[in-house]
Structures are given as structure tokens and as C-alpha cells.
## 1
Amino acid sequence: MATSRGGKQRQPLLHHSPTPAAANGGGAAGRRRFIAFLAAAAALVASYHLLAPTDSSRYHALYLSLGCNATAAAHLRALTLRPHVAGTEANAAAARYVLDAFSSLSFPAHITPYSVLLSYPVHRSLSLAAARGLAARPFSLVQETYKDDPYAAAAAEVLPTYFAYSASGSVAAEVVYANYGHNEDYAYLASRGVDVAGKVALVRYGDLHCEDMVRNARAAGAAAAIVYTDAKDFGGSAPKGAKRRWFPDTRWLPPTGVQVGTLYYGNGDPTTPLWPSCAAGDDCERLSSEDLAGSEAMPGIPALPVSARDGETILKAMGGDVAPPKWQGGEGAPVYRLGPGPAVLNLTYIGNDTLATIENVFAVIQGKEEPDRYVIVGNHRDAWTFGAVDPNSGTAAMLEIGSTEWAEENMDTLASRAVAYLNVDISVFGPGGLKPRATPQLDELIKEASKMVPDPDDPSETMYDTMMRHHPPITRVAGAGTDFAAFVQHIGIPSLDMSYGRFDDYPVYHSLYDDYVWVERFGDPLFHRHVAVASVWGLIVLKLADDEIVPLNYVPYASELEVPFIHI
Ligand SMILES: *[C@@H]1O[C@H](CO)[C@@H](O)[C@H](O)[C@H]1NC(C)=O
Ligand SMILES: *[C@@H]1O[C@H](CO)[C@@H](O)[C@H](O)[C@H]1NC(C)=O
Ligand SMILES: *[C@@H]1O[C@H](CO)[C@@H](O)[C@H](O)[C@H]1NC(C)=O
């Protein structure tokens, strides 16, 4: 059994229920043990234990027949009534909701807490002066609620917009515009004689994660970074002659919408990189705040995300050479210039990086024949705001801390016994077919399962048909800061992650507007896409848990290894 790095024995990987009948899954059959890890999709999975193991095609069909859009909608609504950032009381309540959902289905379930370093805003201010020495105008830094917003009262609980783990500090300096914040963008600025050193870099979302953008800004010498969501990429386009409209009228991000995120450049708890954290009161080795302050994994400069409207206000105040066409905004945007200045931004950010408790919820269906082999299903539960689409987005390391710490703690056991880790972080973005990402030995299984489920948007086709039309071929799981990173990159477990639709159709990502209303109107109006994803997901689980021969096919793996690796 894994021990913490401090040498102290912790609870076993699988916490056994005191009631042996329940722990045995009530005749749940299955050869392998099946861990539903933090999963909110309990209801569909639940039907599994009602089924006889003898006739697999019959119980696969029965499983599929039990999918229910009303249940999916009800769980989503209940989980997103309040914002539930990691470490808060609201997120602990969401954990209890998931625990109760599993328990009510007679699954033995328990919560494993970890104490980890989380990061909250204490004070933010940002002001703009037309030039050094001139009067500065402060930005309100508030995302406005919308007309008839049913969550307007709960919106008061949403944390002020910020970047987790941003350095605290105050910077007043001229601003330089650096497009999407790639290293090449800074190289271009240098080639135009624009010096970024000591300046505030203004960059826009669209190509890179915020932690990459802030890292690149710092590498270029910037003293601070401001990241905004350009209307060109997140605001949608208006029909000719019409005015642009946004949520709740359309799926697009309102002008005051802000995409928040984390700047930590790693996985899991920053104080325990690559080794497990422990519960509050227990003893485990941690990096000190001095270690962290000097760590390359921390952003090292103050940074703040702002809205499209604030980004545009800053750009309007800038001088210098006109930026190249690819750096410009969309229709109706002002002409973007490179700077530096003469506009001066004054940013003050004070954050509180503090140890707080997060909870992993586990439910276990014990297998009969190989109960020491695990098929693991999971995702994260905590959200930056309401989390209706993204209960813990794939880019937000803070949100995956729980699964990372658990994976780190149980690394040896998982490495030898886990059959697969099946993650669904965002199940539905909108229309556009299933988009799986996987390690290659799962490709054939994904295809097989998706052929058994009708497409929710056009039931005359299968999920496989629309998947191959919209998203061929199956892509690979990659990327730090994702739910599955610890499982794939640290432990080497066959893993998949999948969603329905396209990320580009989800402009409210990590903003105030990622709420139930958005999902009901734009993401998945009848919740059939949620059910379809759960159906494919569950079939893959059933086959991995029950097939006589574990359905991992290494032929695609061999082919993949022959593909020249060109994308470094
Ligand atoms: C920047 O803003 C802070 C907070 O509002 C203020 O105390 C400080 O004097 C400002 N700095 C400059 C150089 O204007
Ligand atoms: C930081 O968070 C801790 C724990 O929640 C709290 O006790 C402390 O008062 C906070 N500090 C500031 C400056 O807000
Ligand atoms: C579930 O699907 C049915 C049939 O399409 C539809 O009438 C109902 O409104 C859906 N329920 C929800 C909560 O969307």
C-alpha cells in the first residue's frame, strides 16, 4: 500500500464498507473492481448493479435503455446552484451531494480529504492612465449578471476575477500589446524594436492557456500581465447589419465576461509536486513558501484576467506602430497598436495562497473474479464559478488537485492493478459529435462502444458516424493540468477523456456565465447529448470490467509509434 512521503501509512486505496453485502456489490458481478471516482454521472452507472452478468449484449442494451435525460438535468441543476471553488464550503456540499447520490444507489461510498495549497484573491485593482503622470481611471473588474439571471443572488458568492497563484504585488508601467502571447509574438515585438522589459504585457486568450501566456510574458521581461478575451474569439459575430448579441440571447460571452484560471505550471498540490499530500492535521513533507516563491512552476509576476470590454479600453489608449493584421480584432474593433504606452496600467494584486481541504468522493463496485484490478471512472467536481459545463476544466490544475494527489498516493498500486482511467471532464460543449482523446490501446474500444449508441442530434446515425465525420482521427491525451495527467503521465495507465461538441462553441468557459441556463439554452437543450456521452462512457466501463479478455488493442499503439513525432 502506498505511504505518504513522510512515511506515514494512510487509508487503503479502497476503503472497505463495513457491510460485506454492499461491498460485494450485491451480486454486481463484473470481473474487475470498478471505482467511480468523483463522478457525478452516478445515475447511469448505477444501473449496472441491477444487471445479470451472463448475457453481455442483453445487459449492454438494458444499460443503454436506462439512460435518462431528466436525471442528468436534475443532477446538473443541483450541483450548479452555487459557485463551488475548490476548498470552499460550497464545494464540500457538492461532495456530499455526490456521496449521497452514490449511497442512495447502494454503492459503498466514502470521501478522502487532502489538504492542499489553494489560492484566493484578497485585493485587486487595475487603473489606466492615458500617459504617465495623467489621472488614472479604475476598472470595476466586475462581471455583470444578466437580465432575469436566476443565479444573480448566488453570483455574489463567485470569487472576484483573478488568476490563482498569481504573484502578489503592484506594478505601474506602460503597456505593450503581445497578441496571443506566444514566444514568437514577443520575438516579433523585439524585431519591431518594442521592448517588453519592465512593461505590462497585454495578451489575449485564444491560443494558449493562461499559465503559458503569463510564463511567456515573464520570460520576455514583462513586470506584469493582463489577459483579456477578445470579442473576435469569444464574442461571436453579428448577422450583417445587426448588433452583436451575447448570453443569454446567444451562446457568446458578454462584454464584461472574464475567463479565470490557474497559473501554476504543474499538476496537483504545489506544495507536494509528484508526491501525495495528506489530510489536515496529518504529517507530510511539503515545499515551504520560500521554496515555492523561487519555483519555476509559479508565475512569479502579478497577473490578472480582464473582460473584452476592458481589453478594448486599454487597446484604444495605446500608441506605437499598428499591429499586424493577424493581431487585430474583429469587426468594429479599434485599430490595435503595439505600444509601448503611452497608456500606463497600474495593477495591484494581493492573493492568499493557503492550505485548504478538498474532498475526493469514491464509490466502489467490487468485482467477483479479479477484485484486485481496477477500472476507474472519474472527473473533477469543483468549479471556478457555477461549473455547469466545466466542473473543473481540463486546463485548471487547481481543480485537478484532488485526483492528482490520490493518484500520487496510490501510484504503485495503480501502476500494477489499474486497467484504465476513464475521464469525462466536460461532457458537452454543444453540437458537433463525440470527441474522444485517448491512449491508443483504447481506440478500438471507443469505436466499438460509439457504434452502439445513436447520435443524440441525429438518431439515424451512430455516435461513431458523427465522431468520424467531425473529429477524425481519435486524438491523444496530452497536457499538464488535466484531470488525467497524473494517471497518464505519472503512472502510465491507459486513459481516455471525451466530450461532445467543440470547445470553440463554449465561449463562457471559466466565466460567470458557465451556468445551468447556458447549458439548457445552448450546450444541450434536451440533455440528450449528456445521456449519449454517458452511454458510450458506461459501455466502455462495462466492457473493460467484464470482458473475458481485457479489450485493449495494441495494434493502434504500434501504428501510432510509427508516426513521426513532429509536434514538439
Ligand atoms: C497604483 O495604484 C495603487 C492602488 O490604487 C496606488 O496606491 C499607487 O499609488 C498607484 N501607483 C501609481 C504609480 O500610480
Ligand atoms: C488567508 O487564508 C487563511 C485561511 O483561510 C485565513 O486564515 C487568513 O486570514 C487569510 N489571509 C488573508 C490575508 O486574507
Ligand atoms: C428529455 O427528453 C424529452 C424528449 O425529447 C423532452 O421532452 C424533455 O424535455 C427532456 N428533459 C429535459 C430535462 O430536458
Note: The pocket of 2-acetamido-2-deoxy-beta-D-glucopyranose (ligand 1) is lined by residues 125, 170, 172, 346, 348 (CB under 6 Å).
## 2
Amino acid sequence: MSPMKIGFVLSLALLALVSVAEGGVSFKSLNRTLTVQAKIQASNATSGLAHVGTDHLVISWAFNSSFAGKDADYVNVKIRLCYAPVSQTDRGWRKTKDDLHKDKTCSKGIAKQKYVATGNTTTWRITKDVPGAIYFVRVYAVDALGTQLAFGQTTDKNKTTNLFEIVPISGRHASVDVAAAVFSVFSVGSLMGFLSLEAIKQRKLNGKAGQ
Ligand SMILES: *[C@@H]1O[C@H](CO)[C@@H](O)[C@H](O)[C@H]1NC(C)=O
Ligand SMILES: *[C@@H]1O[C@H](CO)[C@@H](O)[C@H](O)[C@H]1NC(C)=O
Ligand SMILES: *[C@@H]1O[C@H](CO)[C@@H](O)[C@H](O)[C@H]1NC(C)=O
Ligand SMILES: *[C@@H]1O[C@H](CO)[C@@H](O)[C@H](O)[C@H]1NC(C)=O
Ligand SMILES: *[C@@H]1O[C@H](CO)[C@@H](O)[C@H](O)[C@H]1NC(C)=O
């Protein structure tokens, strides 16, 4: 082979390596081995809302001991703020992908801590760049290179329970999101209603034609 051909083959091999390295971990392949809790620490605790700039999230995590002995490779944990499905609707840039390199669900990092089976806590003042939305908290157990090995989160698998709302500086409530989601369900509902009305009309017409 000429040196040029060898160079070409080498760069192809390198490219293949890079693209393999770029493929991320599949979220579905991860076990839920961590327990995670998040509490809002707010000046106005009665409202149940967390305001950026002033309020805090107190996040606690620990290894769930029913998975005894499976945490030998965990080195650190990464604590992240994640959009609930209701705040992802019609927003491609927040989309959930199973490939964690492409996933945009948990784009905001909160903290990184050393992994210990007994767990730890962090108190995070919600930064002003956080958009008003409905959220949950997820914690990834990672190895020394930062590759995800397992996770835990404050919500259930379907991401519908235990969610909380963060209010941005402008005070625009995420209930607008909820309204939008309800509205789109409503539109589908009215479209279906319309279509079935059409079908009934059509059947009546056909019936008449057959008489
Ligand atoms: C998840 O748990 C199962 C059963 O304990 C184990 O066989 C599997 O290797 C674990 N997966 C990962 C990615 O650690
Ligand atoms: C710990 O894991 C077990 C088995 O998956 C699960 O049933 C239990 O709910 C978990 N505990 C917590 C506190 O998440
Ligand atoms: C606290 O929140 C409640 C409920 O949203 C509201 O009625 C009340 O005015 C708030 N208090 C202060 C001091 O902001
Ligand atoms: C908990 O985290 C804090 C800050 O990241 C750290 O200083 C402390 O040593 C940790 N505690 C344990 C038990 O690892
Ligand atoms: C989660 O969502 C799936 C699909 O929408 C549904 O079949 C399942 O019953 C839900 N599970 C829970 C616990 O809500």
C-alpha cells in the first residue's frame, strides 16, 4: 500500500473509533440503584414553588441497599435538573433520547459529588438561567471517566409524580405549559369529535342513498 492509502485507511479507522466513542450509554440499560429526594427550601414555603435566584433545592441521594454489592465501579455522582414531560411538549431542544449523549431531558448540571454508598446531600441555589418549567431531579452514578453506570430520580418511571415547579425571574408560571399540554389534548379530542360527527353524517347520507 502507498503511504497515502495507509494514511487514508488509518484516518477511516480513527473516524470509526471516534464515532463509537461518541455513541452514548443507553438510558434503558441503566439500573435504578440510587434513592433520590429533593426538597424546596423557599422563603415562601406555603406556595410550593421554587423561585430562581433566591430559593434552594436540597437534594439527598444514597445507594439502595437492595442492590447490595453492585456499586463497586461507582466513582462519582452527577446531580442534574430534568424537564418533566409536560414541559417538553413541542420543544425539540428538550427532547428525551435513550442515547444519553443526545438526551436533552437533564441538560442542567447541579453538582458532582464523590460516590459513597451511604450517600450525601447538596443544597443548590437555583440559578437565574433556569427556565420556568416543571422539573424533577435525577442522579447518575458514573465511573472515573464520567460514563453513566446507574441512576436514581425523584419521580416515577413515567415522570408524572413528585414533580415541582420553578418560577423564573419574570414570574411567568409553568402552568402555561400545563395549559398548553391540556389544550393540545383538547384539540385532539375535538378533532376526534369532529371526525366522528363527520362519520355519522356520512353514514346517514349513505343510509338515505340506499333507501
Ligand atoms: C443491572 O442489574 C442487573 C441485575 O442485578 C445486572 O445483571 C446488570 O448487569 C445491571 N446493569 C448494569 C448496566 O449495571
Ligand atoms: C430499592 O430497590 C427495590 C428493588 O428494586 C425497590 O423495590 C425499592 O422501592 C427501592 N427503594 C427505594 C427507597 O427506592
Ligand atoms: C406565599 O404563597 C402564597 C400561595 O401562593 C401566597 O398566597 C402568599 O401571598 C405568599 N406570601 C408571600 C409573602 O409572598
Ligand atoms: C458530601 O459532599 C461534600 C461536598 O461535595 C463533601 O465535602 C463531603 O465530604 C461529602 N461527604 C461524604 C460523606 O462523602
Ligand atoms: C406509564 O405509561 C405507560 C404508557 O403510557 C402506561 O402503560 C403505564 O401504565 C404507566 N405506568 C404507571 C405506573 O403509571
Note: Confidence is low (pLDDT under 50) at residues 14-20.
## 3
Amino acid sequence: MVKSSHLALSAALAVAAIATDVSVPNHLPTRQLLQDAYAYSLEPVWTQDYISSNLTRNLMNVIADITGKPPTFRVGGNTGDQTYYHPELNISAVALPNTTVTNTFNISNAWFEQWGSYFPQGTDFLYTLNLKDNSSAWANAVQEAAAAYSVLGDKLKLFELGNEIDHFINKGWRPSTWDVAMYIQQWRNISDQIVHSSWYEAADQPPKFQAAVFADPPWVPDQQDEIDDFDIINLTRAGLTEHDKVGSYAVHLYPQSTCDTTRWYRLSLDLLSNHSVLWRNVSQYVPQVVAADKAGIPLVFGETNSASCSGRSGISDTFGAALWNVDYVLLAASIGMPKVYFHLGANAEYSSFVPLPYQHKNESLSAGIRSLFYGHYFTAHVLAADTQQRIAQIPSANTSDFSGYAIYSSGHHHRHSEDLNKLVFIDLQVWNGTQGLSNPSTLSTTDSTSHSAGQRPVREVSISTSWKQGTCLAITRLQAPGTNAKSEISVSGVSFESQTGKQVGEIQKEQVVVGKNGQVCFVMQAAEAVLIERK
Ligand SMILES: *[C@@H]1O[C@H](CO)[C@@H](O)[C@H](O)[C@H]1NC(C)=O
Ligand SMILES: *[C@@H]1O[C@H](CO)[C@@H](O)[C@H](O)[C@H]1NC(C)=O
Ligand SMILES: *[C@@H]1O[C@H](CO)[C@@H](O)[C@H](O)[C@H]1NC(C)=O
Ligand SMILES: *[C@@H]1O[C@H](CO)[C@@H](O)[C@H](O)[C@H]1NC(C)=O
Ligand SMILES: *[C@@H]1O[C@H](CO)[C@@H](O)[C@H](O)[C@H]1NC(C)=O
Ligand SMILES: *[C@@H]1O[C@H](CO)[C@@H](O)[C@H](O)[C@H]1NC(C)=O
Ligand SMILES: *[C@@H]1O[C@H](CO)[C@@H](O)[C@H](O)[C@H]1NC(C)=O
Ligand SMILES: *[C@@H]1O[C@H](CO)[C@@H](O)[C@H](O)[C@H]1NC(C)=O
Ligand SMILES: *[C@@H]1O[C@H](CO)[C@@H](O)[C@H](O)[C@H]1NC(C)=O
Ligand SMILES: *[C@@H]1O[C@H](CO)[C@@H](O)[C@H](O)[C@H]1NC(C)=O
Ligand SMILES: *[C@@H]1O[C@H](CO)[C@@H](O)[C@H](O)[C@H]1NC(C)=O
Ligand SMILES: *[C@@H]1O[C@H](CO)[C@@H](O)[C@H](O)[C@H]1NC(C)=O
């Protein structure tokens, strides 16, 4: 149980210290923790921007060097259903009327070649086909599939058929009778045409399909665009469970939104930096996971970020968002959603990094790296492992401002206590500092002017573990001057040059030794994440 008491750590400094006792019981229920649990989703129209500088590749290489596998890229999103294959195009791709406002995106083989060859070796791709255009029995989607595979080959692991298909009635793309039954019929029609193509039959490891791709959160009516029956429970009950075709199911989650006035007024950094809120947002998928488990097919967060409709600078690009994304990926994994794809757009306020200088809301902004990438870099150290890891939420580290996970090195369901390999703790108290408030790659008008009063609190954590007394542990920290910081973020001394992604510094791990009865004690600041691992 968490025992919290306020006491003065040092009379001279009068720093408020919170004493937190955590216990890591044996036999916690665990789920798989993939080395590439953290993935990206890239809006098709912005692909060319992301590969126009070396920043994206350099950052992905940084991650691959730690986890052993570069992050998966989904090339998909809204513009996936506006994409048309035009092999005769005299340029690689064209967004009409432009990339900011797009109703048609025409592509050729050269477009697949450009991004297919850009990313680090070993990058897996997912590509979203146009489900919207149903003319000639989806001839366009079927041609896109053949073209994508002809260029990408085995790098192409999954297709999606349409993006956020539960919004199709609202967008006027399907009649009001559009439902799970009709979706499955159309899904089978297109996927059958694809799997019966000669290129597919000849392929050694042909791509499977990521089905569903639903947007509306099950438990939040005001974020649902209309009443429909699209969810994983209904989809699997209706029979879309064929293992030879369905590699995974996807749902999208954006906890907050800038899409409409009501939700615009609800946007808040404090709401993002709150583990109880995250739990409410993520736990609504627990029944969906049960349905996916029953089908024996994993459910993933196929597109996500802090706030829909491109995010909100001042929230999406702060250190609070970095702590959120660490907590989010680990919480998702621990409820059985093994992969989370963070959406990218070249001028989106939530992007983890932006590849090129750009104009946005009357400001001239630079290419650069935002806080979320530091969250990814820290998470990469959690995901890195020689053997398959498993993860569990720690029940006694589960309050609105404190979250914890236990990670086991054995891939087996039946773990032994000695398999406890890592612990992660995230302090989500909002501490607004006075440094690192701006970042030339994001809007300056949203730089924080809120500063917390007094000294930054510290938390004295005492954990009882199954580790043997005398075991040496290493601590890695994700830190920043405050929840409101947009820069000066680091992971145990490592930062990245914002224009190039070049690593500056080396990880300086601290050491701690396990005490009597498996006791581990350390101190962390308000608004900080720590990784503790066996050396
Ligand atoms: C980008 O990377 C390529 C290939 O590694 C290299 O040849 C080129 O010099 C780099 N460009 C910049 C601007 O660093
Ligand atoms: C490509 O073709 C279009 C007409 O379809 C033409 O307007 C344009 O100038 C051509 N672009 C190039 C680079 O040749
Ligand atoms: C993109 O097209 C829209 C609609 O035609 C227009 O309002 C907008 O100014 C264009 N944006 C750019 C950057 O050209
Ligand atoms: C883009 O694709 C649409 C749909 O196939 C087509 O009508 C249009 O002519 C194309 N435009 C260009 C510039 O390729
Ligand atoms: C194709 O889409 C149109 C709307 O664009 C819709 O009216 C029609 O019913 C759809 N056909 C099928 C088979 O879904
Ligand atoms: C797909 O649907 C079209 C009608 O839209 C039909 O002509 C065709 O036979 C169907 N193909 C398959 C493989 O189901
Ligand atoms: C599943 O479908 C039924 C109608 O068949 C509907 O009443 C129910 O709300 C759907 N479930 C969800 C969670 O949408
Ligand atoms: C996430 O939780 C917050 C707080 O309860 C709520 O306002 C928001 O609507 C939730 N978002 C989603 C998508 O569940
Ligand atoms: C965090 O969210 C919970 C649930 O919505 C709320 O009760 C609590 O007051 C929030 N904590 C802070 C510090 O805002
Ligand atoms: C950009 O500047 C124009 C002209 O000064 C102004 O009308 C507009 O509101 C500004 N837009 C934003 C997002 O600040
Ligand atoms: C974490 O707390 C939530 C309530 O906020 C609870 O529903 C959930 O079961 C708790 N998780 C664990 C692992 O104890
Ligand atoms: C922290 O700063 C943000 C603005 O940057 C503000 O919205 C939030 O309310 C502040 N929170 C606290 C607890 O000071």
C-alpha cells in the first residue's frame, strides 16, 4: 500500500518530501512487452517531408541501437482514404490542392521507393489502402496493394483497409446502414481480391491485414460521431477472425481534442499529466482486449497522440506529454495492447519531431525534436532486452500522480520471482518550472507562464522486491526543468541535437544496491520517470 506522509527532508531547504512505500508482489498478472512496442504512424501526405532531412532516420537509428529493432512505421491516416494510385505520374506524389488541405493524394511507384529506402534496415511497414473509393470493386485499393508490395517487398508487414472506418457515415462515404456486417463483407471482398492476386500467392511472407481501425472511444459518447456498432466485441462476434488474413486489430485513441469548441475548452496539461485519467482512457479497452484475446489476434493502438486534430502546443509538446507517453505505452502493454503508434505530421503540434522548417500560425519555426521523442528514448531502455519481456502494473504504484510497472525477463507465463528484471516509476505531479520553456520547433505563443511556487517536491521511494540483498541496480532518469518544459529535457545526461538528431553525451547510470529483505530505496523529483534495472 502507498503510505504518504509529508515531512521535511532538509530543514534548511524545506523541500517537501513524500514518502512512498511500494511492494512488488509475486505472481502479478503479466502481458508481453515487445521490443518495438513504441511505433509511429505517418500521415501519407507528410511522408515526403519526413524523409527530406536526415533527422527521422538518425532518430530511428538511435532507437534501433538500443532496442535492436527500428520502430515500425504505419503510413496511414486520413489521407489514406484520399490516395489514388497513378503509375503514370511524372512526379512521385501530389497532394491536391496542397498538403495542408488535401482532398486527393495521387501516388506512383516512385513514392513508395522514396520512403521504402529511407528508413533504417529492418524497419517494418504498415500501409493503409483506400477503402473509401468503392468504384470498380475497389480497383484502386487493389492496385495500391500490388504497387506497395512490388516496391517494399517483405518490409511490408500489414495492410489496413481504410482509416477510422466508423467515421465513414459522418463523412458521407457510406450510407447510414454502414455497420460491422457491411464492413466485413467489403473487407473480405478487397482482401480476397488481394490474397488471390498472383503477386500475393507467389510471395514467401506476404503482408497480412490490420483490421478494424476504429476511432470512437467506447466509453466517451461526446467523442463518438454517431451511433454505430463498430467495436472489437461486435466485430469478432460477427466473425472477422480469420488468422490467415488478420494479423492484428487496431483502435485509435486521442485522450483530448482540438477538433471542436467544447473539447478545446477542456484541453489541459494537468489532465494529460494524470495517471488516473490515463487509466480511465485506456481501461475502456479492457473488454475489447478480452474479445481480441478470444479471437487470438492482438489489439493495438494503431494511431494515437495527446489531442486529436493535430495536437495543442503548450500541452502536446511539453515534458508532461513525455511522461504521459512513457506511462501510456507501458499501461497499454500491461492490459494486453502490445503496440502504440504515435501519429506524425510535419506541422502538427503533437509530433515527436518535425523534419523541416515550416510556417505555422504566423510563426516561422525550425525543424527539431520535441519532448515526446525523449519519452520514446527513455522507453527504448525499458523495452531493450535479449529475451522476450513481460510487464505488469504494480498495484501499490497506481495513484493519479504516481505510476509503476514491473518487468520480467522471462517470456514464460509462469514467472519466478528471480525473473524480475526492471522497475519503472513515473511521478506525474505537475511541477511548472521556469526553465526550458521554449523550443524553436514549436509555437512560442504557448510557452508556459505558469510557475509553481516554492521548492520542487521530491519523493522518497522505498520498494520491497524479490531481489536478493546486495544485488546491484542501475537507475536511468527521464528529467526536465518542469512539466511545462519544451526543452532542456534529458535522459541521464543524454540529449539530442535538435536539427540533426545527433546524440550528445552518454548515459550516466546511477547505482543502488538492494538492501535487507529486497528493499530498494531512491529519491525522485516531482515530474520525473525512473528505470531501475538489474545489472
Ligand atoms: C544525410 O545522410 C546521408 C547518408 O548517410 C549523408 O550522405 C548526407 O551527408 C547526410 N546529410 C546531412 C545534411 O547530414
Ligand atoms: C507533370 O505533368 C503535368 C500535367 O499532368 C504538368 O502540368 C507538369 O508540369 C508536369 N511536371 C513535370 C515535372 O514534368
Ligand atoms: C491550401 O489550399 C487551401 C484550399 O484551396 C488554401 O486555402 C490554402 O491557402 C492552401 N495552403 C497553402 C499553404 O497553399
Ligand atoms: C488524381 O487522381 C484523381 C483520382 O484518380 C484523378 O481524378 C486526378 O485527375 C488525378 N490528378 C492528378 C494531378 O494526377
Ligand atoms: C459505395 O459508396 C457510395 C457512397 O460513396 C454508396 O452510396 C454505395 O452504397 C457504396 N457501395 C457499397 C457497395 O458500399
Ligand atoms: C467484390 O464486389 C464486387 C461488387 O462490388 C463483385 O462484383 C465481386 O465479385 C466481389 N469480389 C469478391 C472477391 O468478393
Ligand atoms: C454491438 O452491436 C449492437 C447491435 O448489434 C449494439 O447494440 C451495441 O451497442 C454494439 N456494441 C458496441 C459496444 O458498440
Ligand atoms: C480521457 O479522460 C478524460 C478525463 O476523464 C476525459 O475528459 C476524456 O474524454 C477521455 N478521453 C477519451 C478518448 O477517453
Ligand atoms: C487526476 O484525475 C483524477 C480523476 O479524474 C482527479 O480526481 C484528480 O483530481 C486529478 N489530479 C490532479 C492533480 O489534477
Ligand atoms: C495571423 O496573422 C493574421 C494577420 O495579422 C491574423 O489575422 C491571424 O489571426 C493570425 N493567426 C493566428 C493563428 O495567430
Ligand atoms: C489502478 O487504479 C484503478 C483506479 O484508478 C483501478 O481501477 C485499477 O484496477 C488499478 N490497477 C491495479 C493494477 O491495481
Ligand atoms: C502548469 O502550467 C500549465 C501551462 O503551461 C497550466 O495549464 C497548468 O494549469 C499549470 N499547472 C499547475 C499545477 O501549475
Note: The pocket of 2-acetamido-2-deoxy-beta-D-glucopyranose (ligand 7) is lined by residues 218, 229, 231, 233-234 (CB under 6 Å).
